[in-house]
Amino acid sequence: MKNIIILELKKIDRFLRRLNLTLEYNKEVRRIYKNTSAVMDFNHPSIKEAKKYWRKYNIRLNPKWNAFCASLNNIHGSKYIPENIFFNHVMPLLNNFSLRPAYNNKNYIDNTEAGGVVCGIDKHGNVTEFCYDSKFNKIFAHSFTLKPFKNIALPNFCDLEKIIVQCHERLPHFNLVGWDFGVDEFNEYFEIEHSLLYPGLNYHQVFNGPIFEKYLYEIFI
């Protein structure tokens, strides 16, 4: 029985991995504008369109972030939509700042396992004065630009929370989803990708934990 359960769990894991990659790389590039918010339309995913995404919309990053580090600085939020269980709100988001060049000096990455770091963000959009690397070492300034992680705030932060809720409502079959967004030159948010397998809860736990605090008693008994 144990081996059968393990086998079934592996099948589910493989299925979610394939589905996760499909959702991450088959992005629908049409954007629905509501005020200053940009919400992805997931109805017609297309790999070719996803590859054309940046070129088609000519997205330019916010100059404030570019000055900090000329890379795609990625705002990561996890949303949990349960059926009246656990919690039903947007957890405070995290900001991933790139640290290490990839392939050449013009490309940067934000994955913590490959050198990226993570800062916390409060409910007003203010970034913490320090960040953590993959080993949870505290860092107070960017290793390339040497600029400190203080006095940084995300514009229209409440709009971003609304966008994540709107996006998640388009994926009703998945309770927990990680959402990655960028900020363009007009202070508008655009989706980079979303993840069904790795929503980054470990970093949410560090900055915002315990993330299931209200329900810990019920979970452990």
How would you explain this protein's 3D organization?
- By secondary structure, the chain is an alpha+beta fold.
- The chain has one domain (2-220): 2-Layer Sandwich (D-amino Acid Aminotransferase, Chain A, domain 1).
- Helices cover 29% and strands 23% of the residues.
- It has 7 helices and 11 strands.
- A 7-stranded antiparallel sheet has the order 9-8-7-4-3-10-11, with helices on both faces. Strands 1-2 form a two-stranded antiparallel sheet.
- Strand 10 (176-183) and strand 11 form a beta hairpin.
Which keywords apply here?
single chain; 221 residues; alpha+beta; D-amino Acid Aminotransferase, Chain A, domain 1; 7-stranded antiparallel beta sheet; two-stranded antiparallel sheet; 11 strands
